[in-house]
Amino acid sequence: MEEPYRRLMGNKSIHASKLQQHLFDQMLSQSEFCDVTLIVGSYEMKAHWCVLVSCPYFQSLYDSGLEERVSGKVNVSVGKPAALRSAINFLYDGLVEISYDGIRDLLEVADYLQICDLKKTCTEYLSSVEVTVDNSVNLCLLASLYDLDIYNRMYDYVRGHLPDIMKKDDILTLTHDSILGLLMDKTLTYVNQEDFFDFILRWVSHDVENREEYFKDMFCALDLQRISKDFLERNVESCPLLNSSEECKLHVLNIKMKQMAGLIPEENGHRDVILLAGGSGHGLYIHTFLQLFPLADMISLNNIYGYVIQENRWAELAPLPYQMKKPIITNDIQNNYMYVYDSNPGLDSCSFYLYKFHLLEKKWSSIRVLVPEACSNLSINHVLSCNGKVYIVMSAYYTKSQSHIEWQCVLLEVDEEGNESLVRCMIFQRSMKTQVHACMALNRYICIIGWKTGIIANGRSRNHSRFVYYDTVSMRRFEFSKGAGFEPLMFTMDNDLILTKPGCYRSKRFSFHHRRWFSHKELVVPLFPEEPSRIDYMYTIYNGQLFVFGGKSPTTKKPIDSALKYNFEEKQWSKLETMPQALMNSGTCIVRIPNDHVRCHINCPHCTFHSRRSQATYQIDYPEDDEDDEDYSYDGDDLPSDYWDDDDALYDNFEDMYDPYNEFWY
């Protein structure tokens, strides 16, 4: 006879729930079926071995065969009875009632008994608690003490609100090592060193007998260069704890000697900052396969990074109004303005936008620049602020008469009120091969140098330089092209204009006093110590030193994140703090702004809770084709110069360029 069909019947989950409840009821009633007794001080409670061994602590006791297994009694040496009972209840039914006031006791028992699920439940509860200045230190201590995975979040909150938290009493319970870690944290530049000093005194005074020995290490960790001279003399030097330590007194003496020697500039409430605005950075970088399409792996940026020269660190200002691949920027030192032009979109009309940022008020606005009707087919080369006005060096077809139209390099004075801007002078004729450099000198002169200027004859332009400068005071144009050159580096130093390139042992110098060019053997720039052949880098001059930032490798096309400084007196390169990210083609200028505008480190924890964008206002108009500005990955007609064939190049490679003065001054 064939065997009947067999099936597994019943409800496993209901049965398990009933069995669990049955064991739980036995534990609650302290039934004789419970085979182990837990003892905390004078408190006792019964439980089942079969339930307790679900956690490693009780499993190891049971497996060891020690007295606890034989006697059926286990002494728990930590925790309070209520916390122990909650923990054992959790082992039975997986539920626990948690309160903020009692969670420390519960964590203590859970950690000691190695009840991982209970610790996880406590962590979930703490994650739901609103973190404030009043409870953040306690939450951070709990997370650190019991190794909870919320520690980093709590610690970042403490670091991001440290000035307010240092006024609370909870922080006085932190250990010496924890305080020392905060003092040595380079990202906490937004915290005044004066506040740190006052806190150290308060922390030591909380328990002088046991903490006085730590004062020396903590005081020597302070950056006294960031403490004002007045506070140093009035508060620091008069401190009894300092006078009892020779090392502390020596720490103060070293700073005072540097101040007397002029190595530390007197605090004036401002910082000189080199700004890098926008540009291109890393996208999805695929070197081998996409090397022929160099812009496919880069993205446009709207960041404004600031290199704080006196402190060799990076900060960040409120970002640009939108992403700009090749912004042109300049600054008005007198009125604390920065002007930005987005050179990437093509101009199809006789008007365009400049963006204006007030460095003190952190306010963005836009200026609609109207170009005279005589100018058409515009191409903006440079934007310069000089003598309180904004000038634009641009290429345009200039209509002198109905029958006479020339392609000229033109100097335009911007009317910020929205009226038609003025053409101040014609600089020189240009062609498809013309290259233009421009800079400002002595806050008076607009200096422009052109290469391959003039009309193309027989398919070739004239390979010589034209040097023109415009005096914004007398409003006159001057030309001194004889002896001029054309090089990648153009800047002013000691009231003269300098032309040079890395690796060249001579330079060209134009003296505004003598009004002529000189060959200069002393002022040279050696090749860069890192990526010496880098291109598309940013540079500027500050106090007789050349600062170079980023760029890209000509072979791999990969953006670079290194920053360098060349000291002309010492004739050597030095490496600066690494840039926040690899950049190329960013706009560059030097500004002087209040300390509190750049007090935050580039990785400042305070800025995590107070975004930089929220610190600025944006009252601007955008170009009509703004929807295209968000993606500059590749637009078809803006490839780097090294990818053009020399015969149809708009821009030639500098290394291949013929220089008629090569034998004379190289």
Describe the overall structure.
It is a single chain. With about 675 residues, the protein is of the alpha+beta class. Helix content is about 25%, strand content about 25%. It folds into 3 domains: about 15-130, Potassium Channel Kv1.1, Chain A (2-Layer Sandwich), CATH 3.30.710.10; about 175-265, Serine Threonine Protein Phosphatase 5, Tetratricopeptide repeat, CATH 1.25.40.420; about 270-665, Kelch-type beta propeller (Neuraminidase). It contains 19 helices and 30 strands. The chain has a 5-stranded mixed beta sheet, with no helix packed on it. Strand 11 (about 350-360) and strand 12 (about 365-370) form a beta hairpin. The chain is elongated, with a radius of gyration of 35 Å. The protein starts with 11 loop residues before the first helix and ends with a helix. This is BTB domain-containing protein. It comes from Sinanodonta woodiana. Pfam families: BACK, BTB, Kelch_1.
